[in-house]
Structure formats: C-alpha cells, structure tokens
What we know:
By secondary structure, this protein is α+β, with helices and mostly antiparallel strands.
Amino acid sequence: MDGGIKNLSEFMRGSSRFYIPVYQRNYDWHIDNCKRLLEDLVTAHKEKRKTHFFGSLVVKPGSLHQETIIIDGQQRLTTVSLLLLAIGKWLKDNELEDRQINLEKIINTFLIDEWAKPGNNYRLESNPKDFEAYKKLFDKPKYYVESSNITRNYHYFYDQLEHFPISISDLLDAYRKLEVMIVNLNSPEDDPQLIFESLNSTGLSLTDADRIRNFLLMDEEQSEQEYLFNSFWEPIEERTNYDVSEFFRYYLTLKLAKTPNRNQIYEVFRDYYTTYSVDKREFFEQLAEYAFAYQQILENHTGNRTIDVILYRFNQLEVTVIRPFLMAILRNYNEHIINENEVAKILRIIENYIARRMITQTPSNALNKIMATLYRDLMKHQKEDISPSEVIAFILLNKQRSGYFPTDEDVQNSLETRDMYNVNSKFRTYFFERLENTNHVETLNIYGGIESGDISVEHIMPQKLNSIWKNELGESYQEIHANYLNNLGNLTLTGYNSKYSNRPFKEKKNIEKGFNESHFSFLNQIPKATNEWGKEEIVKRRNQLIDQALMVWPMPETTYQPIESIEESNLYIYDGEETYTGYRIKGYIFVDEDYQEVTTWREMFIQVIKRLARVNPNKIMELASSRLNSGYTTLFTDYEDTRRTEIIPGIYLKTSISNFGKMNCLRQLFDLFDIDYGELQLDALPPKEEI
C-alpha cells in the first residue's frame, strides 16, 4: 500500500477507466453535498488558493489494462463527473463553447476514453442502476432517468450554472485545484475490507446492509462479485423492500436466538459469519430462501389463503417481533418440510398467544426473548412422530411469569372491566374485526373501512349524555355512564356518520346504516334486537362478546410431553419494570452465558455489572469519574469503603441497596450500554412461594 496527495483532474485524466464494484452502495450524495462542493470551489477561486483538499480515494489495480477499482470515494468521483458533464452540456446549450472550453474537450479529457470502443468507453462505471442513469445523461434530455439520484444532482449542477457567481472558466480552474489523497492497494498483503472498515468506522454514511454487502463481496474476483450481486444480493434487496438491514437483524435473531442491537447489526453478522461460515454461494442461497420467506411475510402472500390472512393480521397489528420465527417456519414450508396445515396451526397458536396477552395487558417486553428463542426450542424438542404445532403449544403453555399464556379466566376478567376504547387503535380494530368476521359467511373489509373512515368504532351509549339519554338511563345515569361508557359491551362498529352518535338509541337503530340495517350481524345483534339501552343490555352484550372472544382465541391443547422440561421456561425475563421486592433469587442467565447459580441478589448484581465492565471498562470508569447520579444513588466511585465492591481495578460499586435500587440501576445501565432488558433472565421465587 502506498499513498500520496494528487491533483484530482490529473488523476481523472490519467486513467482509462474507473470501475466501482457492484458491492458498493448506490450513489447517494444529496443536493446539500453538491451545494457544498460548489461553495468550496467558489471559495477556492475567490481566496486565490493554490489547492483545495477534497478527501481521499482508496483504489486498487483492476484485472484489465488501465482499470482502477474504486474501493472508497465513489461519491466524490461520481459527483465531480456529473459537475463536469453539466458544465460541458450547459456551454453547448448556451452556445458559449470556444476552442479552449467546450463539451467535446471536457468529455474526451475527463469522462470518455475516445480511443475505446463506443458503448464501453465511459471512464466511470458504477453499479448497474446508477450506470444506466449516468450513461443516459450523455444523450438527449428526453432519455434521462429522472427518478435517479444521479440525474437529480446533474440537474442541480446544470441549473446552478445559469446564475453562477464566477465564470465557467474560473469554475474549471477551481476544479483543477482539487487535491485528493490517493491510497493505492497495490500489494497482495493489503486487506481492502480492513482498510474500508477503518475508513468508514463511524458508520455515518453506510448502512449495516452496505457494510455486510461489502464484507461478503469485496474479497471475491470481479466476475464472482457480479454473479453474487446479480443472482442473489439484488433479488434480496427487492424481496426485503430495500430494508436489508432490518432483514439481517431478523436473520441474526433467528440464528443466534437473541436480538442484536440495531447499532451492532454489522458487527454481530461479521462475528456470526466468521464463526459459522460455509461455502459463500451456499450461504447466499440460504439467505435468498430466508429473504423469500421475509417477502411472503411483508406481502402476506404464500399462496395459501388460511396462512395469508393470519400473516395479514400480524402485519395489521405490527407485531414484528415474531418475524424471525415466521421466517424459519415459512422457509420450512417452502422447502416442504412442514405442510400447510401444520403452518396454519402454528400461526393460530402464535396469534392466540399474542392476542390473549394484548387483551389482558400482559407486558410485551418478554415477547422479544420468547420469540427469539422459539424456533430453537422447537428444534430442541422436534421429533419425527410429533407435529410441530403440538411442540409449539407445549412450549408456550409452559412459559411462566412474564412469558405466561393468559387463561380463559384472565381474558374474561380483563374484558369485564377494561377500557376497550382508549387502547392502541390497531389492536382495537383487530379485536373487533376478529369478533365480527370469525365464522362469518362473507368477511367484511373492516380494516379498509376503518382506514377510509367509512367504518368507525362507536359508543352505543354516547360519550356525552343529552337529556333524553339521561332520562332513559334513569336516576343512576351518572354511575352507569362512568362505569360502562368504554366497556366492551358499549362499543361497536358502525357505518353511520359519527355526527349521529349522540342521538337517542331508537334513532340510532332506525337511521340509514343504523343498527337495524347494520352489516355487522354479530356485533350489532343485541342492539338490533332491543328497543332500549342501559346497564342490563351492556352487560348482556359484554358477556356475549367475551364468549365470542374465547371462541376466537382459544387456549391450545397438546398431548406432547418431553423427557426433559425447558429450564428457561421457569425464568423471569426481565422487562425493565419489575423490581422483585421480596423475591428470593436462585440463579440467572445474562446475555449468552450459561445459567449462573447465586444465593443473593447482591451476588447477581455484582456479577452482571462485572460482565458489563468487561464489555466496556472505559464507560464504567467514566461513570465513576463523573460521579454520575443513577437516579437512585451514586453507583460507581473511584474510592473504596465498606459498602462497596471493586468491579475493575480502582473502580468500586455500591451494593448496599435494596432490590428496587439494584434493578433500577441495572435498567439504566442496560439503557446506557444499549442492552435489551430481556437479555437478563432471573430464576426467583416470589414472596408467596417462600416457606
């Protein structure tokens, strides 16, 4: 590797071809970047600078004669090429060309190799989509690819030249002052990937997907790069709706049985691939299969209606935490490992589990860990003579504490008293849609109706009582209104205009699209059949809807009994809220370590924080030196006393605090270290279980 400062115009003039490998990200400089370049050029001219530094280019020799491969710096090189092309075309369009400055001279000097074969003579060749847009700019405007960022920035440069503060001659002179650091990787020992990562270590400009793509493709020969990119990577981008980073987060969650932090996706992937890597083509084929399953999830389309409608409901609920598990199940379905009936049964069990937890307001924090490990647990128990749905039912039914599968009694108790109006609107729509459409001969498009405003969730007894309603409810109207306004029994779906919602009950029955004409045959069955509305009718209808809910989301049953139980099912998954006051601890699991047996909360507290200190001792030292107040007490100090334990040399942890204090401190530290709360699982006995 060698390097040095070089004039950019001389560099661009001297090479026949700059090749940007397919693994590089798309051209994504914005108008602000282009504006900054023009401002710098104007400043360089006005201040009469001899040179202006324009960043670095990392290059290596290509396989063809006079070919230079751009490892880093494609954005700068592409932008300058667009500026030069815009200058040349503007001069021609405004008939300002002369012998010294004209379109042909600019193109042949910097942009085209006039001695190469036409069609293959562009000095700059980027990835296929960008390159197609770039080539069109050399043609007539009617052929431009207007949707491309390449074209947008070209237009910006062209438009700015109309009223530019310096002449075109001065602008080109300023361009010739640009200098770049050329880092040439000309030795077999030079590692392009390592150098690229070092240059882009801040992660400001590259997504995790960009870095993963570069990691997988950079070391391959050019022909193999193009094959892997065209055959696998580009289809993966399309199948994931171009959110490849999120896809890899789900993929890693599935493979590692834990969810990586969003700011560490690339690092986790690199470690995973380095540890478990196989033949690269085989790996890409596997990625493509998971990406296809991911596309089926996003589009709720597998070709099987039963499966697709459940996927649709998951998407409506925005329950993304289950996607890693769904990717594995659908991949198995696509590979004919699991049949469609089993997939449908599994998805129904998952749906019932999630719906019951939502109905009973069971904290959702634990779902992340449960779903991350669910496929691993399935594989742990799976046998040829046992159906996967039986195993899934067993695993979820045996979850305890924060992973609890709510019972019929739990569901009934919640729906009897819960405010079902002031809830998450997507859950509310899902809830009423399921009550109405389950076992309905012709399902109604309730999701579409809610979105368009043609259908709304309405109070039968209105939110504001007029004199007629007060009279019909009787002397206890205030109590009834306060206790039953947002109760399940008083809420329904209607198609009539919401401005009629305050009308007397009998009018609501008889108006256009009122209860008597309602298409919601189940939800409005009782309002249609009665002529008055009060506490008795609300309770009657509430009980009817509760019975329907228990039918819609039944508790699964299973005959499967493993030889050994799942130890993790008896652990609390920390949700960031529980303080475990009065609990007795037996052990814990933190991140990816094995089960650790302890006898006191103090012991667990010290061990977990020591683990954090191993991950980032500097951060712990900063906390101690800043005397950071944790919200409960000063946790770390650089001095010793009898109430403190040394965590790292010279740094001491205060341990003489209650369980409430310990868990509060851990929660804040997990936030600071960007660690998911669910990475801590606790084996503890609540006070009522103590003898």
